[in-house]
Write a structure and sequence with these properties.
single chain, about 60 residues, YefM-like fold, globular
Length: about 60
């Protein structure tokens, strides 16, 4: 697992995205606390079709 600050993630998003595409998990921190996880879809507990369903509707 890799840890990146929110600033690092903002300025180097492509780098961290590549790491996730290669199977790594990235914890994003803000003010020293983990605020988000970026992980490969294979490790996600929520199927993409369910998690993206709300974003794909036309309402």
């Amino acid at each position: 697992m890799t840890i990146a600050t929110a600033d690092e993630m903002q300025y180097n998003f492509g780098k961290y995205l590549s790491m996730v595409e290669n199977g790594d998990e990235v914890a994003v921190t803000e003010n020293g606390k983990i605020t988000a996880w970026l992980l490969p879809l294979e490790k996600s507990e929520i199927p993409v079709t369910e998690s993206a369903a709300g974003a794909l509707t036309s309402d």
